[in-house]
Amino acid sequence: MTSPLTKRRVLVVDDAGEVIVLCVNMLQSLGYAVKGANRPQTALELLGQERFELMIVDYKMPEMNGFEVFLQARRLQPRMAVLLLTGHGTADIVEEAAAMGFDAILLKPFTRDQLHAAAKQALRGHM
Fold first, then answer.
1. Is the bond leading into 40 cis (omega within 30 degrees of zero)?
2. Residue 122 near residue 82 (C-beta atoms within 8 A)
3. How far apart are CA 86 and CA 88, in angstroms?
4. Statement: residue 32 has pLDDT above 80
């Protein structure tokens, strides 16, 4: 039986192609429908065209950071859950992300089970 949290549409935004491939493969193996974007602008264009239940966004990217993407994404899809993915798990970043309204935070490196748990946590408030 499929979990009600799977079959959800997820957008993964990261400037590192290998992270996108890893996340897409892990999430697809769990039953999620996943698209990847390696540039924030590409992600925002996709958000303007398609509906997603969850966006997973990297914190540190060259064009704009995950916080900036989050703010613009919330305008486009206010009900979408957002998970911050970061390799910079400093207390300041985690606190600011929580204060901004991110639904979950996942630190790199992570396992498939950790990614799944974080995705479920983010989606819980958006059922």
1. no
2. yes
3. 5
4. yes
Q: What is the Cα–Cα distance from 22 to 51, expressed in whole angstroms?
A: 22
Residue-wise pLDDT for 81-113, tens only, equals 999 999 876 889 889 999 999 999 999 999 999
Instruction: Estimate to the nearest angstrom the gap between the alpha carbon of 20 and the chain centroid.
Output: 10
Q: How far apart are CA 39 and CA 36, in angstroms?
A: 9
Tokens at 23, concatenated: 């996340």
CA angle, residues 22, 60, 34, in degrees to nearest 5: 35
Residue 90: per-residue pLDDT: 80
**Nearest Cα to 23, choosing from 108, 123, 121?**
108
Predicted local distance difference test score (pLDDT) of residue 117: 97
Q: Which residues contact 22 (CB under 8 A, 6 or more apart)?
A: none
Residue 95 exposure: Cα atoms within 13 Å on the Cβ side: 3
The whole-angstrom distance between residue 112's C-alpha and the CA centroid of its chain comes to 14
Q: Which three-class secondary structure state does DSSP give residue 46?
A: helix
